[in-house]
Amino acid sequence: MNNAMQFLLTTLVELYLIVVVLRLWMQAVRADYYNPLSQFVVKATEPVVGPLRKVIPSRGRIDLACLLLAVALGMLKIGALVWLNDIPVNPLVIVVQGLLSTVSAFLTTLFWILIIRALLSWFSQGYNPMEAMLYQLTEPFLAPVRRIIPPLGGLDLSVLIVIIVIQFLRILIGV
Question: Where are the alpha helices (DSSP H) in 30-128?
Answer without folding.
Answer: 36-55, 64-84, 91-123
